[in-house]
């Protein structure tokens, strides 16, 4: 990895660290300039990370999301973009602490991995692969946002804080994040099916990654309906968001670590 890429990655990392620290200070002293400064650090980190991803794309000749380092780097970028969308749309302010802490943990895990860009195998050399993976991680990012809002909903319900959004807003953001994540993940499965047919002659195979991805889709599809069922609204929906995120983590990381799969990205 070049010195420029190295500088961009660490610059983004420390910008996110500064954002989390400033959000913590905002919780302590409740000064508006603190959360504004935190948001500015998020913007800075996102800009640096975007430049790094663009540079690696140019160098590789394709979007490098083919190993754990690259997918985690892209996942954290998607999560930061999702947070910026929610902040600009709903002005959640202090709630950004938890979301950006999740992003920071994901980004920190990148720093210990091999940053090399692998050679693209022929089966992955298609725009369908890029569409499949980008929509997958964009969906994961919204599911992570739903998880964050679910946790904050439970905290706000049990503890209560003037620094957190009202329960009604947290519930709205949670439901919207689940819906958008489900739509993006649906596109991911569609692109993946077409890609599999072009590359191997079938739309779906019973490999472990494909099966668990289908379970993720079914779970969040069920959540899109659960929001209309009274007993699952509010607290129940928040708990489902947390359980769904555990399913996402297992599908993304757990299968590659604990199980064997013939999926190209495990």
Automatic annotation (TrEMBL):
InterPro entries: Cyt_c_assembly, Cyt_c_biogenesis_CcsA/CcmC. One of its GO terms (biological process) is cytochrome complex assembly. One of its GO terms (molecular function) is heme binding. It is a multi-pass membrane protein. Its main location: membrane. The chain crosses the membrane at residues 6-25, 37-59, 65-85, 92-111, 131-156, 177-198, 210-229, 236-259. It is found in: Membrane. Pfam families: Cytochrom_C_asm. Residues 66-259 form the Cytochrome c assembly protein domain. Keywords: Cytochrome c-type biogenesis, Membrane, Transmembrane, Transmembrane helix. It comes from the Bacteria. This is Cytochrome c biogenesis protein CcsA. The lineage of its organism: Bacteria, Pseudomonadati, Thermodesulfobacteriota, Desulfuromonadia, Geobacterales. The gene is ccsA.
């Amino acid at each position: 990895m070049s010195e420029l890429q190295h500088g961009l990655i660490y610059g983004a990392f420390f910008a996110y660290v500064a954002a989390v620290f400033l959000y913590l200070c905002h919780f302590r002293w409740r000064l508006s300039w603190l959360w504004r400064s935190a948001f500015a650090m998020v913007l800075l980190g996102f800009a640096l990370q975007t430049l790094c991803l663009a540079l690696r794309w140019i160098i590789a000749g394709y979007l490098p999301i083919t190993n754990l380092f690259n997918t985690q780097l892209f996942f954290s970028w998607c999560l930061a973009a999702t947070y910026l969308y929610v902040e600009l749309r709903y002005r959640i302010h202090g709630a950004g602490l938890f979301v950006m802490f999740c992003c920071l943990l994901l980004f920190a895990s990148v720093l210990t991995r091999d940053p090399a860009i692998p050679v693209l195998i022929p089966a992955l050399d298609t725009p369908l692969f890029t569409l499949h993976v980008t929509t997958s991680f964009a969906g994961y990012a919204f599911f992570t946002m739903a998880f964050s809002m679910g946790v904050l909903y439970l905290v706000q319900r049990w503890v209560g804080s003037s620094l957190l959004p009202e329960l009604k807003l947290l519930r709205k953001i949670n439901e919207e994040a689940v819906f958008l994540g489900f739509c993006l993940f649906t596109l991911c499965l569609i692109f993946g099916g077409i890609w599999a047919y072009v590359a191997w002659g079938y739309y779906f195979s019973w490999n472990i990654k494909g099966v668990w991805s289908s379970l993720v889709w079914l779970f969040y599809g069920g959540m899109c309906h659960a929001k209309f069922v009274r007993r699952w609204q509010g607290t129940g929906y928040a708990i489902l968001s947390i359980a769904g995120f555990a399913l996402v983590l297992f599908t993304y990381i757990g299968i590659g670590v604990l199980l064997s799969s013939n999926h190209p990205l495990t």
